[in-house]
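pasting for ref
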Amino acid sequence: FELGVGELTEVLADRLLNCAMLPVLLKGVVAINGDSAVGDGQTRILAPRVALFLIRQVFDILRVPCLLAPLASALLQPFVPAALAYVLPEGPSVGEASPA
């Protein structure tokens, strides 16, 4: 990311977001508020604590706005927007409001 080539940075950030961060890290955090995150037959890739730790590491280490802004925006949403539903594995909280 520190190569100074804007177009390459954007492509790498998009790949990292859509292939790793949103489907793995965001799904790990979304599972915290899910009613049936463990017992409904879905497999969780990361435990919620591990996902939160890794997200913290991403924000501490990386300084690329085109990567951090979409991740922060997705994390601050009260529910997973329908636009992100295609990225995440199927789950009960995708596209629906999380229970209070």
